[in-house]
Amino acid sequence: MLFMGEEWGASTPFQFFSSHPEPELAHATAEGRKAEFAEHGWDADDIRTRRTPRTFQRSKLNWDEIGSGEHAGCIASTAI
Asked: Residue ranges of the domains in the chain?
């Protein structure tokens, strides 16, 4: 199983993002994520909001890199 963009070594991060129109659900999601990461030793202040358009845009794959440089070699090796 491959994660999004892993087959060519994508440089874009995949950051969890959400868009909940209900304020209660948005709050519950944010608090749940903080609690989940706290279980792994993360500081709650390091968990940024994932409801911003910037988070969504940063997580979109850059398809232009798929055939260039080190990315091209990476995808060639997954075809074997």
From this structure: 19-56
